[in-house]
């Protein structure tokens, strides 16, 4: 009798816990566009999100053991290298940020592995809103609206409430990809056209060569995956046709913007493949050569910021950064983490699920960010770890659904919502 009396109460509490979790998730992702201070509001909210996940009964999926182990090894390598420079300024903070971001990736992965679509939808709405707000701030700063240029676009490059235009611009790419994919592969709404226009304008005004390259690579991957996963030849034709149309419209949009002299001048300067700071003594290329030598000389790693203290500047390559800051062991774990994320995501992306578009765009953005990592350090970008968690969480949800409901339609598995 007692069990029957208390059972309804337990059932009623579960949806309330989930609603609280969705609210915290929404606010946490929404705050990710504010990164002008350290720690950022997003960092504090991640602790609250982890707590809400525990209270709501989020469980650890066995598929997530792979990223958990690799993230752990990556950070153990970083902590070992930290002992070399533990007394230097901000080194402990740097190592702590790496640990925190690894935890954040696992929190997102466990969240998206269960009750997948409601949580994904909440994240998407918050992320798109945050990215649009960041783009609008960046645009306002670039045109110095209400005197905001010094704060939101110093040096003539939009960065909104980020510290660096090279971090602000990649933050916009996943929402832009998701919006474009929805128009190309499913339906076109005027709202999506407006959102895509704002995000791409904000991306252009960052004048970040790495982010432009990142976006181009991600778009190619997204179109290829959308084409390969389309269930019919008619839909494949739609993907190709609308992709070509979108490319033409994007080119026309850029040409129109370049008719403004201020944009054209900065674009011409930034679009050059080789910049003055890339070559010569103390240039990017020379620093990367020095970094390779340091990697060979310090197999245990130099520790955070030590390379820049010795040589004056960073090497601007996340893979060299992995060896320099986390040692050979940590770097190998990091590289295996990236490769396994892509491989397992590509294995799951061909399964037709309600979250397939999210997985397609997350993998595309992740691969683009991996490519950008050759010219910039991405190991502390918060949205990178959101993408990492998204790929693994959606892959875990896909595999779990296949175990529960294996059905095959036209040679491809179809799974219902988790």
Count of structural domains: 1
Flag low-confidence runs: 1-13, 408-418
Taken from the alpha-carbon principal axes, the silhouette is globular
Mean pLDDT: 88
Structural class computed from helices and strand pairing: mainly alpha
Q: How helical, in percent, are the residues?
A: over 70%
Sheet having the most strands: 2 strands, antiparallel
> How many H/I helices?
17
Helix and strand arrangement:
Layout lengths: L1 H29 L10 H15 L9 H18 L8 H22 L3 H27 L6 H4 L12 H7 L1 H13 L4 H15 L4 H21 L3 H25 L3 H10 L13 H14 L8 H6 L6 H32 L6 H17 L9 H23 L2 E3 L2 E3 L4
Antiparallel strand pairs: 1-2
Helix pairs in contact: 1-2, 1-5, 2-4, 3-4, 3-15, 4-17, 5-9, 7-10, 8-9, 8-10, 8-11, 8-16, 10-11, 10-16, 13-15, 15-16, 15-17, 16-17
Give an account of the 3D structure:
This protein is an all-alpha fold and 418 residues long. The protein has one domain (61-414). Helix content is 71%, strand content 1%. The chain has 17 helices and two strands. The chain has helices spanning 2-30, 41-55, 65-82, 91-112, 116-142, 149-152, 165-171, 173-185, 190-204, 209-229, 233-257, 261-270, 284-297, 306-311, 318-349, 356-372, 382-404, and strands at 407-409, 412-414. Strands 1-2 form a two-stranded antiparallel ribbon. The longest helix is centred in the C-terminal third of the chain and has 32 residues, at 318-349. It is globular, with a radius of gyration of 22 Å. Residues 1-13 and 408-418 have low confidence and may be disordered.
